[in-house]
Amino acid sequence: MKREVAIVAVGATRFGEHWSKGLKDLAWEAGVQAVEEAGISGRDIQYIVFGNMSGGMFEGQEHVGALVAEFLGLNPVPATRVEAACASGGVAFFQGYLAVASGMYDLVAVGGVEKMTDVEPGRATEILSAAMDYEWEAYFGSTFPGVYALMATRYMHEYGLKPETLAKVAVKNHYHGSMNPLAHFRNKMTVEDVLSSPVVAHPLRRNDCCPVSDGAACVILAPLDEAHKYTDTPIIVKAVAQASDTLSLLERRDICTLDATVNAAEKAFAMAKLTRSEIDLAEVHDCFTIAEILALEDLGFCAKGEAFRLYEEGETYVGGWLPVNTDGGLKAGGHAVGATGVKQIVEIVKQLRGEAENGRQVDGAEVGLAHNVGGSGATAVVTILSRR
Amino acid sequence: MSASGVPRHWRSLRERYRLLGTYCENCKTSFFPPRKICPKCRRRGRTREVEFSGRGRVFSYTVIHVGSKTFEKYAPYIIGLVELQEGPRVLSQIVDCRPEEVYIGMEVEACFRKLFEQEDGGIISYGFKFRPVDNSWVEHYAKLLSDRKAKTAQT
Amino acid sequence: MRVGIVGYGAYVPRLRIKIEEIARVWGHDANSYREGLGIEEKSVPSLDEDTATIAVEAARNAMRRAWEVKSNEVGALFVGSESHPYAVKPTAATVAEALGLTPSLTAADTEFACKAATTAIQACLGMVKAGYIRYGVSIGADTAQGAPGDALEYTAAAGGAAYVIGAGDGVIAEVEETYSYTQDVPDFWRRDGSSYPRHAGRFTGEPAYFEHVINCTRILMEKMGTAPKDYDYVVFHQPNSKFPLKAARELGFEEKKLQPGLLVSRLGNTYSGSSLLGLAAVLDVASPGERILLTSYGSGAGSDSFSIMVTEAVDSKRMLAPPVMYYLDKREYIDYSTYARFRRLFKEG
Fold first, then answer.
1. Neighbours of chain B (3+ CB pairs under 8 A)
2. What is the pLDDT of residue C212?
3. Alpha helices, DSSP H only, in chain C?
4. Which residue among B59, B71, B125 sits closest to A154, beta carbon to beta carbon?
5. Does the annotation count A335 as an active-site position?
6. Residue of B13, B22, B65, B74 to mutate, interface with A, max A Cβ within 10 Å
7. Which residues of chain B fall below pLDDT 70?
8. The pLDDT of residue A122
9. Residue B149's pLDDT is what?
């Protein structure tokens, strides 16, 4: 028996360089916000599940579930840490959803946390390489941006995409981020700023790439028919779907398509019984500008090779045909790897409640979609949330 | 003093040196990286090791300017996704050419190069990389034989 | 039954630096080095090349020519070099693995300055003749280093050549006879822990190079009852152009017999690869029935001489891999700063 699940409270830290906050401080900050918003005591939570890609490599700290439960003063509540590289947050959300939908738990905290700035950048790049195939991709010198650059090169070859179009993705996300107090970067950017930034992995430049961020986010889940106990504006989880694909690009069916996204999106829209045109806004996984282009196509919002039109015509800005990444996405909002999937959900919830800042609030938003990807597409999670 | 990760470097050493993969006699397909069973035929497959010719074409490429710590000192370098003649795709560096010279569809052949050195006197790792194919040398022998024929015709 | 070379292969890295460029940086007079050494430019290995990678490329070319040789028929493999990548860990094992010859073979790294690989050829000849092995491989390869600003910097180069030794109809060049001449002469050395070698200046000429190359060659011919007129080609170790030209003159060989195998002006001194690359260049052009005399030289000191007779099998096999000239022609020039980066002259922080 499956019951409907609602998000009853959210919390999130700013994403950025938090020198004075460690893993547990960040988790605490996001968790406390959510708990206070729900008007509950931390002790009411029955299960904690959250995403963290690599406490081990960044901090030498594994067993992060136990760390967070202790620091939040919540022992003996079960605490599970989930890992799926950059999709850790989304996968954690799916697990939390299952815990409530199944009837097993009535109040679940789903979170995500990552602390990335304690190590030097070269080491951070290396750690992020663990999201790809270590043995046959990283070992030969590819980096994580390198893998997406391979996808971009092929995509440009097959579909004629121009670097300027990729730049427009970053420009839009910085525009949205400039109005979001929680974003890592608040500066606006021009196409020239992107095209003149140093090349990281051709054709991707520094301003095509999301930053390394510290941050945490948290949402509280409850069965829909109990949501009124915690909030006047419950947000219903209409669908969550997860899919897998090859870890490396070597055996990908088509390196310009994330089949995991396609598969998860199909399942999510079927589960929600909704069509693409009913989505009012989307949070997609723009770890690199090319990833946002691919996401819109793979989620089914437009045909393969056609996403560029949406950027030429400015249709992904707030006020456009489909606002995408209204909080700045990963590029401007920041990418605290394990937390990103949950941060995306927090943004959709705020938008559906009408609580986003002036200038970036989508008018009358009723249905939103969140899309979280792990590695170069080996894991994808698609979530559809609705106000009613 | 022990170095880290040595067994892991050693485990795929033969495949890295010689570009070895798996061939299934049942469905006549080659796979890379090597596999324990044929992903298509599963238990019905009959697999054996295969050494690829090393010839292939560039399917996609990028130029890494910001490498991870291990590869920092080699940057910038070219990474290619190469489609081998036999079918599978492999990823490695493209060497002996400039970034501007690489193009999708370019013919390449495997060569044996150093991948990296572990710091602090650790081990050196070797493996396959790819370089552009250049068959211009074949003419040398044709010319040699025709020169010799001309000389003996004179005497 | 004839015993000798069943296949040969060469490899030279693509990059070159001109002596003008080196002289420019050190404020030297380029012309005096050009004339004094008889050299124009030298090869430089890429950041991802070393003696092992060069040895593998040369050996793969040799195995392409020795097409009839099966992996499990190679019973020995030696790599001779002064710049093995590890001080302790055999280059030969890596090369044998890369060629797919493991596990049933003996292997070792050899050292005797620039004659390390010709000595290993003698070892292979012995094992083949004795019937211990069917085929043996000897590779001479180096990525030589000269101290910055020193005369050796103008010539220390990178390259290698590989030889598959065996018996029977597959032999393309029979080794009729070999002779060696060895004495303790401290002309050029490198102490353990030193980055660069030291040399004894002009002492490296008469008492070292010429004493050994000339006597070894002369005594080999005496033993065989041959004279310079009986040889179509002569190949000597080539630390520069001057020394082999002088040795040829003193022994009575015409310069035109030396030229096909004299590569140093375009290549530099590839140390353990030097005389063997010269031999490969000759094998690339020699006709069946022609005879080659090869004398290597290793500082410290010693020479190995070989009298080699080319067979009819050469034409069909040599076209299976690129000639030395291909590698010499295929080049890209770099400046001194790139050279220094590649040669790791900057200490890594």
1. A, C
2. 98
3. 19-26, 30-37, 51-65, 91-98, 116-130, 211-224, 242-251, 255-258, 264-267, 274-283, 314-318, 324-329, 336-342
4. B59
5. yes
6. B65
7. 1-3, 155
8. 82
9. 85
What single string gives the DSSP state of each residue in C163-200?
EEEEESTT-SEEEEEEEEEEEEE-SEE--TT-SS-EE-
Cα angle C55-C59-C64, degrees, rounded to a multiple of 5: 155
| Token pair for A50 | 């959250």
Q: Which residues on chain C are in Cβ contact (under 8 Å) with B111?
A: 53, 57
Q: Give chain C's length.
A: 349
The residues of C whose Cβ lies within 8 A of any Cβ of B are: 14, 46-50, 52-53, 56-57, 60, 85-86, 94, 97-98, 100, 284-285, 287, 315, 318-319, 322-323, 325-326, 330, 348
- Residue of B14, B35, B61, B62 to mutate, interface with A, max A Cβ within 10 Å: B62
User: How many residues in chain B?
Assistant: 155
Residue C344 DSSP class: T
pTM (two decimals): 0.94
- How many Cβ atoms are within 10 Å of A302's Cβ, its own excluded? 18
pLDDT value for C79: 98
Say what angle helices A144-159 and A289-298 make with each other, to 10 degrees: 60
pLDDT of residue C349: 36
User: Cα(A265)–Cα(A245) distance, rounded to whole angstroms?
Assistant: 14
In terms of CA atoms, which chain C residue is nearest residue B111? C57
Q: Which two tokens stand for residue B98?
A: 């400039």
Chain A residues inside the 8 Å CB shell of B77? 141
Tokens of C329: 């022609």
- Interacting residues of A89 by C-beta distance below 8 A, sequence separation 6+: A50, A51, A112, A217, A338, A339, A340, A341, A342, A343, A344, A345, A372
Contact residues, chain A to chain B, C-beta under 8 Å: 122-123, 125-126, 129, 135-143, 145-146, 149-154, 157, 198-204, 248-251, 255
Instruction: Give the span between the Cα atoms of C323 and A60, in whole angstroms.
Output: 54
Question: What is the spatial distance between Cα C286 and Cα C295, in angstroms, rounded to a whole number?
Answer: 17
Alpha carbon distances (Å) from A366 to A34, A329, A353, C247? 22, 20, 9, 92
Using 50 as the pLDDT threshold, list the residues of chain C that sit under it: 348-349
